[in-house]
């Protein structure tokens, strides 16, 4: 199975900050990488697919980049609604696997 | 509008079999490229994909749980069922079902999710 490793596991930031979260795959996955946001008690929300394509309705302050084994999610100017946990997920090959999550908190 | 909703027992005893149903609307599991997945999240922990069933009845399972899982679909009833045998307290988690969409270029993603169902394994 492909292992997905996220870093950091948590970070503290303030409104307006630029924040970057990293995700590493245990083998090359091309750009078959998705990002999700999850708030407490809620289902995850798809943010980005194919490493850099913004899901409909997701604000443009979020962006994704990377290919192969190294990926990142950047929030250009953190907003109050962005405080949440973020997960990466590879869709290259089954079984589909997720990273351990990155909690973005104040 | 795509919606999904999980249903099943909230508590199961150790060694019992868990059966969860995902009722969905707004799409057909007969449509090429579409899938429905079951995922879970233990309290305070990360997401884990348990199983996915595709429009062509292809099934994919978690490597570590494969021997305990069965996923089936009933396209006439618009639901997907997951069974997990030999439940253990470590299987206590919120179980989600989600729509898996295959986009251009072969990329797929879980773009619609149910609200989740908490299942507690306890005697």
Compact summary:
The complex is a heterodimer of chains A (106) and B (123). With 106 residues, chain A is an all-beta fold. Chain A has no helices and eleven strands.
Structural description of this entry:
The complex is a heterodimer of chains A (106) and B (123). By secondary structure, chain A is an all-beta fold. Chain A has no helices and eleven strands. In chain A, strands 2, 4, 5, 6, 9, 10 and 11 form a seven-stranded mixed beta sheet that branches. Chain A has a four-stranded antiparallel beta sheet with strand order 1-3-8-7, with no helix packed on it. In chain A, strand 5 and strand 6 form a beta hairpin. Chain B has 123 residues and is mainly β. Chain B is built from no helices and eleven strands. In chain B, the strands form two sheets. In chain B, strands 2, 4, 5, 6, 9, 10 and 11 form a seven-stranded mixed beta sheet that branches. Chain B has a four-stranded antiparallel beta sheet with strand order 1-3-8-7, with no helix packed on it. Chain B is globular. Chain B starts with a strand and ends with a strand. The model of chain B has no long low-confidence stretch (mean pLDDT 96).
Describe the global form of chain B: globular
* Mean pLDDT figure of chain B: 96
The mean pLDDT of chain A is 97
Strand count, sense and barrel status of the largest sheet of chain B are:
7 strands, mixed
Structural class of chain B: mainly beta
What is the radius of gyration of chain A computed over CA atoms, rounded to a whole number of angstroms? Answer: 13 Å
Percent helix range of chain A:
under 10%
Low-confidence stretches of chain A: none
How many beta-strand runs of chain A? 11
Strand content of chain B: over 45%
The main β sheet of chain A shows up as: 7 strands, mixed
Q: How many strands appear in the DSSP assignment of chain B?
A: 11
**What series of H and E elements makes up the topology of chain A?**
EEEEEEEEEEE
Order of helices and strands of chain B: EEEEEEEEEEE
Structural class of chain A: mainly beta
The shape of chain A is globular
Strand proportion of chain A, as a percent range, falls in over 45%
Radius of gyration of chain B: 14 Å
Helix content of chain B: under 10%
